[in-house]
Structures are given as structure tokens and as C-alpha cells.
Specification:
heterodimer; A: alpha/beta; 6-stranded mixed β-sheet; 4-stranded antiparallel β-sheet; 11 helices; 38% helix; globular; B: mainly alpha; two-stranded antiparallel sheet
Chain lengths: 237, 301
């Protein structure tokens, strides 16, 4: 079967600095794939490269067999890929509802706006209670949920989620992981970046590890758990 | 009778000054909102703003005087001039400003380019229309009298149309998809990109809306005063004063600032004479900017 998303020999640059070196990953439909690695080693850059948010990219990125490297973000979003940023990137002086509506900006998303809004409020009842509240007045955990919810509004099938647990207390982390599991059960494919959270392995079907801009490990959850090097540096076991 | 005749006359005069302040304020608000919008969304400053004001005046003049447009009167003029200004603004952004965004420090380059554009347009008007000022027929004549107070219908119309266009603008910004996208880009360009808003098109649309607004103001005021090919810079500076006082990029700030300045001009002008009104305006601006550099409602330095 053809993978849903395939990245082949990707090299990415920020100005003069070479960030990603010959990175190849592939993700199948319905999977939750987790990309682990230390901070500042290029994990976010890989997600941003997929979503067209980095200017200088070489290599191949195909989504459902179609080359998407170098095309504009709005087209990539319209094809069904969404990026949920680690720092959320919400619209601070707009209400929760306005943020969600803007999540459904592309043509494809607009056609399913009503259905997705209902689904999002089912998944995050707290957002329904706060739909008239300004995004800037929300707590860290709620803002995170809003970012995920806004991503769902794009009607994406493939969700790139960048460190959803960042800055959250443990109970909220578990809640957000549970929600991501639920989103996956509803059929979305998830490519998720995390640093070193032990609970994340519960969520993952497969794991990649990135160090210094290169993929240093690829394998199943069990393989990752039995790998001494990984256990030591990422899972703290 | 509680008041003497003098007191009543004084009250009438004060009411008259307040109304004049409101009228001036409403036009300032329209012009300043158009200017601050571009700054708020694209973070670049448009120095050619005042020339677009004159351009709309000249378009109206061409339609009414040489072409002798009679049918529909000013309604027809607005319906032709405003879309032309919108398309023109869109084109200027796409052709002249957008290419600059590929460079570092493009905000400053945009200022230099629009300054050049402003000089070019001012000279163009001189060459094409000559230095003599043009006048337009007023869109309405006559006065209404309420007791001792006399209102010209023209001033009432200017006030109503300015407020009407500000409300239309507010509606577009808050109730349409385009307006939501404009606000999204202003509040968080990265967030806007992530949800799939085509930022370049929004920049151009913002510039187009701004150009249409100043064009509307241009027709509105040109029929009261006159069209002066060299007045673009003055108009730009006036709009800038209101914008800077209110806080660059803040629409609400511009709105408050416009009415405060309108009132200040009217009252100082009434008490001390017209030229003192302008002086008071600049003193207010300097005092505000030295105490609060971001203006009344700016987001901080």
C-alpha cells in the first residue's frame, strides 16, 4: 500500500544554516507516528517543511501520491494537511468561535464547517462554554485545546501536531494525549512531535527519533522501548 | 425665562461648534481608519495615501465636468469612483509593493517607494490637470434651521456618509470572511498562514480597501472645498497625525483620536481663531507622543 505521506531525502535550510539532512519518513493512513528528539534538533522544522512553512526545502514530499513540496501552505491545507503549532499561533483578540471559523478558511474546510464545528464542540465541551471568550484570555491548556480544535476545523485527514504537551501540567498532558487518541480513532492520521514524555509511547504506533537534523532511529513502539540508547536519553528509564 | 438672551446665543454657538467638531471628526475618522488599516495589517506605511484622495477627486471631476455626467448624480459618481479606487489600490499593491516583500527590511523600502509614488502622482496631476484648483458642484444645497441654528445639508450629508462608510467598514471587518481574514493577518501572520489564509492576497485587499476609503473621503470633501493637485501631502499628514495620536495600527484608537482632534480644532478655532486650531493639534500630538509613544491605543513600542 502506498503511504499516506512520504518524505524522501529532505534537506532544509534556514538562511545559511543546514537544518535537516537527508531525512526520510513515511506514514500510513490511520497511524499515530511520534517523532522524538532533543530540543532544537529539527523536529519542528520537519513538520513545518511538510506544511510549506519553510522557504528553502530540497527533496521530495508526497501526500497521497502527489508532490506537495514547494506549493503554498493554503493549497497544502486545502489538500487535507494541518499544522498545529507548539506555541499555538491563535488569534488573540478574536473569540474562540471566530478562531474556529477561521480554522475552516479553505474551500475544502468551508464545505464541512458546520459538521466539523459540532464535532469539535463534542470533543472539547469546554470550548463550547467559552465560545464568546477572547483567545488571549484562555489558560494554557484551553489555548492548546483551541489550537487542536482549530486544526480539526480545517477538515484535515493528516494532522501534524507540534509538542502538544509543552508547558502543560501532567494531568492536562494526559487529557490532550487522550484527545489525540480519540481524534485518531475517528480516522485522522497523526504525525506528532514530542521531546521526552514517557506517556507518549502509549499513543504511538511507530516512533522516529531525530538527532542533529537526521533520523537516528525508526521502529515500532516495542523496538523503541527495548532500545537501550533511546530508553536512556528519551524515556528516562 | 431662566437664561438671558446672551446665554442662549452662547449655547447656540457652542452647539454649532460641537456639530462642526463632529463633522470634521467623522471625516478624519474615515481617513485615519483607512490609513491605520494598512499599517496594522501589513506593518508598512503608505506615503501616497493623500494622492489617492486627490485621485478620487479628479475622477469625480472628470465624470461631472468634462463628461457632464447628469444621470444619477453623486450616487453614480460614488458607484464608479469607489470600485475604480479599489481595483487601483489592489493593482498598486500587487505590482509595486508586493515585490518588495521578498527583501529584508521591506517595510522601509515600502515607505520609500510610496513616497516616490506620491511625488510622481502629484507631478502627474500638475501636468495633466494644471495647477489651477478645480471645483465640483455641491451634492446638495440648502440649509435646515432649528431655532437659531442653521445646518447646511451638505455638512449633514458629509457627516452621515462618513459615519455610514465607517459602519460599512466595521461590518466588512467583523462580519465577512474577508474582514475576518484581514484581522487574522493583522493579529497573527503565522497563525493566518497555518489556517490557509493567502496572506499576499489579504495584503492587496487591505490596501485596496484603504484606497477605496480615502477615495470616498476625497470625493466627499472635494465637493465641499476644491481639488488642489498639490494638497496630497497635507491630507496625508493630517491623516497621519490622527493615526499617530490614536496609535498606529489601532482602528478604535483612530476613531477616538479623530473625534478628539475634530472637537479640539473646532473649539480652539472658535475661541482663538482658526490657525490656533492647527497649532493646538500639533501640541497635542507632540505631548501625547512624548508621554506615550505608542499613541492613545497603540499596542506598545
Amino acid at each position: 500500500m502506498m503511504p499516506m505521506l512520504q518524505v524522501t531525502d529532505l534537506n532544509t535550510y534556514y538562511g545559511q544554516s543546514h537544518i535537516l539532512h537527508d531525512v526520510s519518513v513515511s506514514i500510513d493512513q490511520g497511524e499515530v507516528v511520534v517523532l522524538l528528539g532533543p530540543n532544537g534538533h529539527g523536529k519542528s522544522t520537519l513538520l513545518k517543511s511538510i506544511c510549506g512553512l519553510v522557504d528553502k526545502v530540497q527533496g521530495r514530499i508526497t501526500y497521497l501520491g502527489r508532490e506537495i513540496k514547494g506549493i503554498r501552505t493554503e493549497k497544502i491545507v486545502n489538500l487535507g494537511i494541518t499544522y498545529i503549532a507548539e506555541n499555538r499561533e491563535l488569534f488573540p483578540y478574536m473569540t474562540v468561535l471566530e478562531n474556529l471559523k477561521l480554522g475552516a478558511y479553505t474551500k475544502n474546510a468551508r464545505a464541512h464547517e458546520k459538521k466539523n464545528l459540532e464535532r469539535v464542540f463534542e470533543l472539547f465541551p469546554r470550548l463550547l462554554d467559552r465560545k464568546e471568550q477572547l483567545a488571549s484570555t484562555m489558560s494554557g491548556g484551553e489555548a492548546k485545546m483551541l489550537a487542536v480544535a482549530r486544526g480539526l476545523m480545517s477538515n484535515a485527514e493528516f494532522m501534524c501536531i507540534d509538542e502538544p504537551s509543552l508547558g502543560l501540567q501532567p494531568s492536562l498532558r494526559l487529557e490532550i494525549f487522550r484527545t489525540i487518541r480519540e481524534i485518531n480513532r475517528q480516522g485522522k492520521t497523526v504525525f506528532l512531535v514530542e521531546q521526552n514524555i514517557p506517556q507518549i509511547t502509549e499513543l504511538a504506533d511507530r516512533i522516529y527519533v531525530m538527532e542533529e537534523g537526521r533520523i537516528s532511529f525508526a521502529g515500532s513502539k516495542d523496538e523503541a522501548l527495548s532500545n537501550d540508547h533511546l530508553k536512556e536519553i528519551f524515556l528516562g528509564m | 425665562m431662566f437664561f438671558g438672551q446672551d446665554t442662549i446665543l452662547l449655547i447656540y454657538e457652542i452647539v454649532d461648534v460641537i456639530i462642526s467638531g463632529l463633522t470634521i471628526g467623522s471625516v478624519y475618522a474615515l481617513m485615519a481608519i483607512g490609513m491605520t488599516l494598512v499599517y496594522g495589517v501589513t506593518k508598512a506605511f503608505n506615503f501616497a495615501y493623500g494622492e489617492f484622495y486627490n485621485m478620487a477627486g479628479f475622477f469625480a471631476w472628470i465624470l461631472i465636468v468634462p463628461l457632464g455626467l447628469k444621470t444619477g448624480g453623486y450616487v453614480a459618481v460614488f458607484m464608479m469612483v469607489i470600485p475604480v479606487m479599489f481595483v487601483l489600490g489592489y493593482g498598486v499593491e500587487k505590482l509595486l509593493i508586493a515585490p518588495l516583500r521578498k527583501h529584508d527590511d521591506w517595510e522601509n523600502k515600502v515607505m520609500l517607494l510610496t513616497l516616490g509614488l506620491s511625488l510622481f502622482l502629484a507631478s502627474l496631476y500638475m501636468v495633466v490637470f494644471g495647477a489651477r484648483m478645480k471645483t465640483l458642484p455641491p451634492f446638495i444645497e440648502g440649509t435646515a434651521e432649528v431655532g437659531e441654528l442653521v445646518f447646511s445639508y451638505q455638512d449633514i450629508m458629509i457627516f452621515v456618509l462618513s459615519i455610514g462608510s465607517i459602519l460599512t467598514f466595521w461590518w466588512i471587518l467583523n462580519r465577512t470572511r474577508l474582514g475576518m481574514a484581514v484581522r487574522a493577518v493583522a493579529q497573527n501572520p503565522m497563525g493566518a498562514k497555518i489556517v490557509g489564509i493567502p496572506k499576499e492576497r489579504i495584503f492587496a485587499a487591505t490596501f485596496a480597501i484603504s484606497t477605496a476609503m480615502v477615495g470616498f473621503g476625497g470625493v466627499l470633501l472635494s465637493q465641499k472645498w476644491f481639488i488642489d493637485p498639490g494638497s496630497g501631502a497635507d491630507v496625508m499628514i493630517k491623516a497621519w497625525v490622527v493615526t499617530a495620536f490614536g496609535g498606529m495600527g489601532s482602528i478604535r484608537g483612530s476613531l477616538y483620536a479623530a473625534f478628539i482632534i475634530g472637537m479640539l480644532e473646532a473649539f480652539v478655532g472658535w475661541v482663538f481663531g482658526l490657525s490656533y486650531g492647527i497649532l493646538a493639534l500639533f501640541i497635542l500630538l507632540l505631548a501625547t507622543l512624548s508621554l506615550r509613544p505608542q499613541g492613545l491605543m497603540g499596542k506598545g513600542a
